[in-house]
Amino acid sequence: MTVTVELAGEGSHEVDAAGKTYADLLAPFDVSKHEVSVLVDGRPVPEDQAVDSDVERVEVVRLIQGG
Hints:
CATH architecture: Roll
Low-confidence stretches: none
Organism: Halovenus carboxidivorans
Strand order of the largest sheet: 2-1-5-3-4
CATH superfamily: Beta-grasp domain
Number of domains: 1
InterPro entries: Mopterin_synth/thiamin_S_b, SAM_domain_containing, SAMP2, SAMP2_halobacteria
Shape: globular
Largest sheet: 5 strands, mixed
Pfam family, one: SAMP2
Protein name: Small archaeal modifier protein 2
Helix content: under 10%
């Protein structure tokens, strides 16, 4: 099962999501699961959750840190 993973403003990758978690989908990008939020249909999903078989597209957005 292939999922399109888009990192907002930085491109997208087709990822084989079979047997993987949402955090596993971040592998093609140089990001940590602690600095992004993973969205399916505009809603955040837990990174440690298995990718649902009906998911075709995942959006990843960087979290903003202030100081």
